[in-house]
Every structure is written in C-alpha cells, then in structure tokens.
Amino acid sequence: MSDVVEKTLTALPSLLSLDSQPGAAKLSSTSKLGNLIRGITELTSKHEEEKLIHRELASIKEQVSSPNTSMRQMKELMVRAIYCESLGYEASFSYIHAIKLAQQGTGLEKRVGYLAVSLFLNENHELLLLLVNTVLKDLQSTNLIEVCMALTVVSQMFPKDMIPAILPLVEEKLNHPKEIIRRKAVLALYKFYLIAPNQVQHIHNKFRKALCDKDPGVMTASLHIYLQMIQENAEGYKDLTASFVSILKQVVGGKLPIDFNYHSVPAPWLQIQLIRILSLLGKNDQRTSEIMYEVLDESLRRAEMNHNITYAILYECVKCIYTIHPKSDLLEKAAKCIGNFVLSPKINLKYLGLKALTYVIQQDPKLALQHQMTIIECLDHPDLIIKRETLELLFRITNTQNVVVIVEKMLEFLRMSTDDYTTIDLVGKVAELAEKYPSDCVCFSYKNYTYAPDNEWFIETMNTVFSLSGDTMQPDIPNSFLKLLSEGFESVEEDRKLRLFAVDSYVTLLKGETGKLPQFFLQVISWVLGEYSHLSEELKPATVLELLQKLLDRKQTSSETKSWALMAMTKLCEGRAGVSVAQQVSETYISSMDTVLRQRAQELQHLSQDSELRARVLPRDADLEPLEVDSSLSFLDGFVSEALAAGAAPYKPPHQRQEELSQAKVLSLEPYGLSLPISMSSCSIADRQSPTLLSMSSGLSGDSTDLSHKGGSTTLKFEGVKRVWGKEGYLAQKESVEEAVQVEAPSPLRSTSQQAEVVGSHSQTPTLTPTPEPEQEKQQLASSLFFGISSQSSVCLMGKSGPTPQRFRRKAKGQSSSSGATEQMSNSVVFTSTTVDNLLCNNPPDSTITSEVDVSSSKHTSELPQGLTAANGTCDIEAELTDSDLKGSSPPLSGDNGLENADPDPHENLDKPQGVCLSSHLPAELSGLCRSEITPLCTLQNLDLSACHVHREDTIVLVVFITNSSDSAVQHIRLDLDSELLEVSCVSESPAKDVRSVAVYLYSLTVRRPAVHVELAGTVSYQVPVGTPQTAQFSYKLPLTAFIRPLTVSTEEYGTMWLAFSHDTKQNLTLINDGQEPLVATLNVLRKKLQLHVVEVIGVEGILACKLLQDQPCLMHFRVHEGALAVWLRSPVPDLPDCLIYHCQRALQEH
Amino acid sequence: MMQFMLLFSRQGKLRLQKWYVPLSDKEKKKITRELVQTVLARKPKMCSFLEWRDLKVVYKRYASLYFCCAVENQDNELITLEIIHRYVELLDKYFGSVCELDIIFNFEKAYFILDEFLLGGEAQETSKKNVLKAIEQADLLQEPRHEFFTVPVY
Fold this sequence. Notes:
A: five-stranded antiparallel β-sheet, 48 helices, about 50% helix, B: alpha+beta, two-stranded antiparallel sheet, 7 strands, about 25% strand, globular
C-alpha cells in the first residue's frame, strides 16, 4: 500500500508545484480525498464500498451545513462530493452548496464551485435558477478569470427562461479586447441559439462580426453557429459562400499561426467545419457549388499525407463533393479517395470507406461494382460494425435480382445480433425490402426462377422477421404487412395464392411450438387465420378454432393477443362444432377483468348464435372499399337540430368555453390560446377490416375537419356565428368534411409497372452452379449481389428510412447481467501498477496487468520521456512543438481576415445587360405586366437559358428564353419541364425548332400543392449541325407569393368562409412602427408585398383575404395583442396557411 | 456536436464523465454501463467506431485508460478520434507525462482542461498553446489577490 502512496506522490509533482499555497490545511485536504480514493480501492466488496461512501457522504453533509466551514474547506468537500457522485452515489444535498461556493468563493474555490455545478446539474434542473445572479455578477467582474468562468458555465447550461437577463452582458463581451472572452461569448451565444433560437435572432449581424474577428479562435467558434443556422436555412446564407471559401483557402494555404497546426496540418478542425458548411450551401445549387470547386480541389490535393487527421479532411471533402452540384473531375478524385479508404488495411479507414460508399452509391452505383470483392470480404468480417455497415451498403443497392441474397445476409446478421437497437433497425429494413419486392414477383413465380422473390419467399421472410424481432418491433411493420396482404396486388389469383400460403404456413407454425413466437406475430397469425383460412379447402374451421383456442389457453399469451384471437374466432365460428367451441370460449372470457377481452367475448357469444347478423357485420370477401368514417358525426344532425329547436344552447368547443369563462368582455377574447383538437374517430372495431385501414380512417378525422376550431373564437362578430349550429351553417361544414375525406383517401394499391423491365433483364440471369472453391463462392456471391447494377443503370435505391431512432430510450435487456458485471469490476483491485503507466507511453496494448505489478516507480519514471504514442499504435509520434514553434511568427490572417464580403457575385454583372435585351423578346401581351427579373438558368456550349415569370390576373406565365450564343444554328431543341408541386402546361412554343438568336417558350403554371417556394426541374436537349445531341438540366424557383392574388369578399362572406375552412395556423408577427397607426401600416405592407385584399379593419383587428391561383382562398385575421401582431390564417388547402405565414414574416422582415 | 465523453479504466471503472446533453442520472448510469461493457468487449484490432443507438461512439485506448466519445451521426469520426488525442496531449503537457493516477487524483484538473478545450460539446480552442495558457492563468488564481494583478493576464 505504501508503495502506491509513494507512487501517487511522485506522479503528482505538477499538482504540488502548482499548489504554491503553503499550509497544513491544504495538504491534509488533498490527502483526505486521497485517503478516500485509496480507501475505496482497498475494499473487496461492493457492500463495503457502499458503507464507506455512505459514511463519507454523512461526514460531508455534516460539514457543508456547518456555519463554521470556510470556503476553502467547502471547496475540498465539493471535490469529494463530486468523487462520490461519479462513483454513482447520490449527493444531492451538496448541489445547493456547490451553487453557494460558486457565488461566495473566490478564485479557485469559485472555479471548483462552478465545476461542481456543471457536473451535478443539467440544464433542466430547477436549482440552476439560483445560479443566475452569480453569473450576472461574475460577467460584470473586472477579473477576467471570473468572467471566463461565468461564460464557461453559461455555455454548458443555462435556464432557457433566464437568457434575457444575461444576454446583453454576453453580447457586450463580443467586443471585449481579450480574444478568449470573445470566443467564450460566441460559444455562449451558440448555446443560446441551440436552446432558444428566438432569443438571439436580433444579433445575427453580430455573428457576422465574430466571423470576421481577427483572432482565428473566435472565428472558428462562430462557425458552430453558422453551421447550425445554415443547416436550418441554407438559403439565407448563400452570400457568405465566397467568404467561407476564402477562409478555407487561407487555412489550406497555411496562413494561420502555426500553433493552430495539428500534426503539421493547418487547423484541421476549422477545415472540416468549413467543408461541412460549404457542402450545405452547395447542395442542389450549381451556382454556389461552382464557387467552391477550386478550394475543394486544393483541399483534396493538400491532404495527401499519411495521417489520421488528413484522412478526416479527405473524408469530409469526399462527402462534400458528392453532396454539392457534381463536377466530373472532382467526382473522379473523390471516387479514387473512396477506393483508397475501402482498400486500406487500417480498419477505421475501411469502415469510413464503406460509409462513404453507402453515401455515394445513389449517384454512382458503378463504384460499388469496382469494389465488389472487398465488399464481399467485409460481409464476413469478424468485426460486427464492419459487417453491419456492409449490409447498410447492400440495402441501398437492392433490386429484384439480388434482393433474395441480400435479405438472406441481413437475416443471418439478425440472428446473431444481440443489440435491440440494431435489431429494430434491421428488422425494419428487411420488412421494407420484403414488402417492396413481392409486387414484382407475380411474373416470376411461374417460371420457377430460383433467385427471384416470390410469394413463398415473402411469407417465409416475414415469418423469420417476425420471429426474430421479439417484441421490440415497430408496430407499423405488422400493420403494413397485413395491409399488403389484404389489399393484394394486381392479380386476384396471385393474391389468393399468397394468402393461402400464409394460412398454410401459420397453421404449421401454430401446430408446432408456439412458446417462442412474439406476441406481434401471434396477432398477425390470428388475423390472417380469421380472415383467410376459408381459402384453404382441406383446412376445416374447426381445426383453426382449435388452434386458436390452444393459443388462448396459453399462459404467456398477452391479453391483447387474446382479443385478436377472439376476433378471429368470431369470424370463424360456423356450424355446430364451431358454435359449441365459441360458447365454451366466450364463457371463459365473458367474466374477464380485461374490458376489451370481455367485449370480444360478448361479441363472440352473440354473433356465434346469430349467423345472419354475423354475415352482415362481418361479411366474408368484403369488397375492400375504404371505410368511410363520418368524423363530423353527421348522423347526429337530426338530434342536434331537435335539441336546438327545443332551446338548447349551441355547442361550444371546450377551449372556447374556457376563454369565455376567463374573459368576460366579448371583444377581447383571446383567440390564440391553445386549442385542443378533439379526436372523433368512431369506428366499430368489429368491422371486417384490417387494423391498418382502421387506423388510417381514424387518422382522417384528425386532418380533415377539426371541430374544435369551428365556432371560431375570433373576436370579430361574424354574422354567421349564431347560425353555425343551426341547419344552414352545419350543412356547409359537412360538405367540407366530405370533400376532405374524398381528397385524402386515395387507393394505396401498388402498381406493378416494372413488369416489362423485369422481364427484359430476365434473360441475363446467371445460372449458378455450386462449386466448392471458396474464392469461387465469393465470386458467385458477388455476381448474385451485384447483379443488375452492371446491366441496368437505374438501380432500385431507397433512402435511409428505417424506424426513426429514439435517442437514449431502450428496453432494459440484459440489465441483470450487466449490473452483475459492474459489481465484479468494482470488486477487482484497481490499483495495480498498470494504472501508473504513462498513458502516452509506448506500451503494447495487450500487456497484462499482472506482469507489470513489479515495475518499480523509478523504472517507470525512466520510461516516461518516451514521447507520445497511442497505445493502439495507429497514431504517429508527434513532433513536439518547441516553445519557439509556439511563438511562431508566421503571418497572421490579414486584417479583415480576408473576408471580402463586398466582393460582388461576378455572375450578376454579366446578367444585367443580357436581361435588358432579353426583355425585348417578351411577347407583346406580357410586356406591360409585372414580372420577375430575368435570371439565367444554365449555360451550355452554344445556348444560354434564362427565365422569368410574369404575373397575370388569372395565372402565372413562365417565360423561358433560349439564346443561341454561337454562329451555327441549333436544331431540335426540346424543353421539358416538370415539378412535383406545380402543374405545367405549355402555352406556346417558339415555332422554329432551329434557333439562331432567341427562342421564347411560354408555360402556364398552377400550384398543385403549396410550398414556401416551388421549384421546377427542366431538361433541355438540342443538337448542333455537327456533333452529338446535348442535354442539360436546370431548375427554376418561384416564391409562393407569385401565385397569390387578392380575393374580394365582403365581411359577411368572410365570416361564412372562415367557419368552413379547416386548415389553420397561428403565429405572432412583429408590428411595423413607422409613424402611422401600427396595424394599418403593417397591413399595408403585407397588402402591397403579398397582394392581399383588406376586407375590413375594426379597431385593433383586421381581416384580409387572398386566393391561391386558381380560386383557393385563404383568410387572414390580424389582431394587435401586447405589442405584437397575432395572426390566424385559415384555408381549405393544407399547408397554404403555413406557407403564407412564412411569406408574411419575410415581407415584414424585409420592410 | 459531441453528446458525452467518458473515461474509464480497463477494469471498467469510470474515471471522468462529461455530458453535453441533459440526461437524468438514471439514463447516464445506464448508458455508461452499457457502453463500458460494449467497448471493453471489443478486441484490440477492431474498428474504433461503434454505431450505438442513433449515435456514433468513437473510442481509443491509451495505456490502461479508454477514452470514449459519443457524437452525432453526421459528425466526422476521424476528427473525433483526433479530439481524443489532442485531449490526451493536453493532459500530458499539463501533468507532464500523464498517467491514470494523475487523472484519478486530480480529476477536477482534468475537467478544467476539458472545459477549456471543449465547450458545450464543440471544440472551443484547438491551439494547444492557447488552451494551456488559459489553464495556467486560471491556476494562478490560488495566489493571493494582489499577486494576481501583477501577473500579466494573457
């Protein structure tokens, strides 16, 4: 033991030398903590440790609450408390004292106080409120260290509601002369931005100042904020692209002070942050991407060194190159880079290579082909992480030809996986694949093609998925499986076969051992048997009933599963035998404590006796018409009108009643309170429908018409209000419900249009003959995995969907075993001499503890100067920076950090004159109308494309100009426009197909689905007299406001419409205060910018109306409330209110 | 953004923990237990990255200590590995050939260094010189007040 003490003392010279404070108190306190630590390591059992810590905690508790304890002692006590907490024992009594120490202590005491606070509490802890005053005081301190401490704690945690209290002080620190203060202030603001973005909205220009800070550290810190903001809205920061590029150029060029170097690579953290920002900015934006090509190329070139840090930069570059608008030579370099990663013997690089491959596979499926043998090897890699990533890669390249092999590999992994999270994820993916492909199988199965998915494969795969997944499965997987089964595919015969096969396989399963089948699976089985077992001729209902009864009798069956089984039985109880079984079963459960079970048992009892009623309630082979749910409860109309006629008060939704209670005055009702949506799904669950359909239809009621919004709790007195629950108003509302139901219940049947394609590639199928050679096996596997990628360029790709991950939530599995392990660990003696090893020493990682026990401390010290090397040996020895290096005088960034913000975009200069001359080509009927600026779309070898949109009263006309910049004529111009959100119809094409100067194309646009901005994608193809046909793609974006026109209605009409519309949104906007009456001024701005019609302004309220072309109204209600403008938008069109709110905000911001 | 950082010994003893996301003590304990187990079970030649729940875990062993960070999915794994290495370098420079005992007995110092290097889950300062300067300045606070003022600050 004394040995250890001695070592401890020698190992801590730095502490002692720093601790210049003489005095016994200090020393003894150090040893108090030391004693505690040593004491714990001597113990042999968890129980003893508990006893010791509880004793320790009791002593700490007594001392911290004693009034005689000095701050110095308090500091020492806090350190001990932190230690106890980190061992897993609660010391919550000390939290308040930690705050006190931060408040009252000085110097190091304060520092420990703040540290304890940051370790003890998280940002949601209520005690944190008590820290606010301390932070306020310290932010104002003249002592820089105290300011630093305050900023440090603020950047880690701060109560959201108290941000306004310290925000001005933190903002002020952005101008502090010391860079460390500025840097910490920037990070504190970053933290505020993360937890309460609204609070720091007004200081965005100060972020720009931080970005231009002369200190690289401050600038780097500001990039965290920019990354975050650009992630949320890349559009808003496109103007900064050139600045980011210029910073990156300087960093890559080694213009930063040398102490930002890391292993002789200039500021890698900064580089990676910048590349990430650039990739966000350049995504789907050719113009912005073009600005960054050069610097990315430079980064790639410079990063060709053999060190982890350069690989990190390379990896980020590759991701960026594949994210932004593609450029062929960069893509080529990136692909080479990925190749190097994949082929690298270093496992970390191999993993990243696979990841990069997964990432780029969508754009470049051929790349997977190049590395197919490596991928096959990785599929059998001993490290599960590599294997898992390979499966992820394969998942992305699945097509009809390889799906069977890939699913098999995934199931293989699933059988080994012990991690719930991976299981859930993989199960979801397998189910997705299995469900995606059986629609193609129809044409395959009769040809007996071994490697194509068919009915049997589908059912068997799903069986494996269900049985492997345990009860952790996402509930939507069984739901969509049942939906698929019940809706079927195109061929009736195939559907029947599929269902029959499912029934047969489930009967076999139920006859076997059912103990291990998860509840989910049993529910699926019950439903399928109840619904489809009649398809099987040899299967008697009595057999099925018997099987279900057996299931009911099992102890492990959950009551939910039991109710599924009872439902199935209700559908099956036919004939005398069936009825008697049904009676028997229902008698057992009719007195069950579970109400659902009891209900099911009742149903079973009644329906089994009354076969006529049963046939009506549960018709067999029911046509799969979607169940219409009358969410407006219109069948109660008669009842309501009767009640109203008898003098009953009209119905008011709960929130309105509350408001009326809380505010007596009619005209100042608060319309923007929280409204509680009332779910009105009223479906009879006994219907012969799949559960999915049920949930779908009940979901409808939420979307379509929410009655809680009816009866409009606006403060405006609408004429229609009183009558709304009378006959007229009610009818109007019912119509809107029906409309909504019609719109939102499309038939989800899948089309199998791929048939032709599949048959076409069928002939290329390889015939596989088994060979014993392992190498050949691999090649065979490769050919089955990568089949289809080489022959057809369009690979079936899907996004990374999977179940949405839930952070830090997981079923407690294997908890008991792991706690056992912890216990074991704490029992083992920790202070063997390995713990004294120099962390950075060149120790072989596998050297055992015991072999080094005898190493004396003197020998150990002699080992120390060996330098820095990672134990894993993956890191190079770092050349230690000498002092002179640290003070290196390499040129700092130029004064303004090289941010030539004023540098105008060169493109704009070019466009201006062109725009002028193009406008003369506008057709005469459009020339006088309001139009957007002419913007270039794309530039090709011979052609320039530009476009603008012209606002007409009833439509938007898109004008595309094609300018031939060369002397030779261009022929066969074809222009195709397409958009998800827009309906594009051609108005007039330029008659000439050959263009010598300018051709004009006109298109009329209508909005299909509103979005804040709507985008068109287009392709242009043409031919020059000599040469190959050329094509190019472009996109054009319009704001939704282009489609907005004023809607002239009277206040009364407005009132009626308001009540009929179901989609709404509310928000507060800022008022414009420029002399006039704020409401009028604000409304005027909005009216002008967005083309709205002001219906009426009454006191502090205004109502406006507009329509989306053509004739899709949106109503707006504005009210001044506590200095802000409360807005409420309503429309029959989903998303329209939200989009308009956005544009209102923009319009007011720009004002 | 880094979600949390854990330092633990080969015996599974937690030496340091820093959480950048608000979690309850119970969750923290569960995560720690789970991760320590997973990482310790991995063989030396295996990949330093783990996909764990929806996060990525990057770990590295230095002598008897494991340094283990959880980052978000879009974060760069390799640079996280270098963050760990830079932290070890900082510890080494500060303690002078750091060993596990330094961290055990002076865990508060290790926390101070970490706070100067990473703040709120993001790299605050990557210049080794600047971090150490900040720490040294703060350490000087132990001096009586009047002495502090004579020391040039930064």
